[in-house]
Amino acid sequence: MNNPAARDHRRVPVPLLDLQAQYGSLEKEVMAEIKEVIDSQRFIMGPKVTALEESIAAYCQCEFGIGVSSGTDALLIALMALEIGPGDEVITTPYTFFATGGCIARVGARPIFCDIDPVSYNISPTGISSWIESNTDEENGRLVNRSTGGTVKALMPVHLFGQTADMGPILELAQRYDLRVIEDAAQAIGAEYTDGSRAGSMGDIGCFSFFPSKNLGAFGDGGMCTTKDADIAERLRVLRAHGSKPKYYHALIGGNFRLDALQAAILSVKLKYLDRWTEGRQKNATYYDAALSEIPGVLTTPSRTTGQRHIYNQYVMRVRDRDGLREHLSAANIGNEVYYPVPLHMQQCFSSLGYQPEDCPESARAARETIAIPIYPELDDDQKSSVVTALADYCS
Question: pTM for the complete prediction?
């Protein structure tokens, strides 16, 4: 490998993520915000949550933000707000974190898994269209699954690894068949589609996670729903507080899905730096792309869809002997992770749905071949060089 950048620096251990490095630069600001919340004793809802909701909504090109307790609960409450439940079906991807399919099942609906595009790893619009044409009938304004009798109510695309799904044709399908669209944008805050639309602004509801490892991470769990629809926003607000409005009067059955004021305060500090961090991730991705291009025929680096803003929540490569590479990187003290080793259509808890591995072959192949390496913005030159050197050594 003829890459001086990969050889000139000393080798150092590189964690998959280093939250201490981020916190060190923000400690004074964060602690001041935490002290304000403690001094006010306003821990549930309140002005800190409202301020974050307004900021996130504006950042995501939406009118409304509704803070919730986690990214998982954002998906759950979105389904509840759109009245999706028993007898309904939701089309989504099997190559995603479990919460995507799990929340559909939790409201009593049936997940329908359509395969991914092998380049972007996002759900294939062609696959969605083919499934609808082959498996459904339109009856009295409903899209009915011929084999189950269920009503297909919604599409739930996932913007995986920091890049949006191909939303143009997905939205066209939703309009054609009168389907709601819930965007699982847990890994994609600030990502943009080719028309400049931001993740979470294109469907009926966008769902975000502030899990600590995300590009915008809290000091615990937290999430947000975004929408442009005032009625949906109000329904989400009511549902997150046990369906209560006014207090102690319940027209709806909701849950305790509120975002803590402490987490909102911390996230408001971090949001100011998010674009800077995204630029750092993009620069690191460019470095990897250039360095790894000199390793022929072994590693496939992530694809950037032309015209999109990729925020690189993860930097995910494809390699045939993924498990061998993972063992090598771990031995070299290079952090790595597999997202995701078992696609949802192959999970034991969904076995009753009757899927076989070959029903979503690209998802199954991605689960065997993909591996993520460190991409966080605080990586220094020695760390990036160590990652590339370890990869080069494995491939030589």
Answer: 0.95
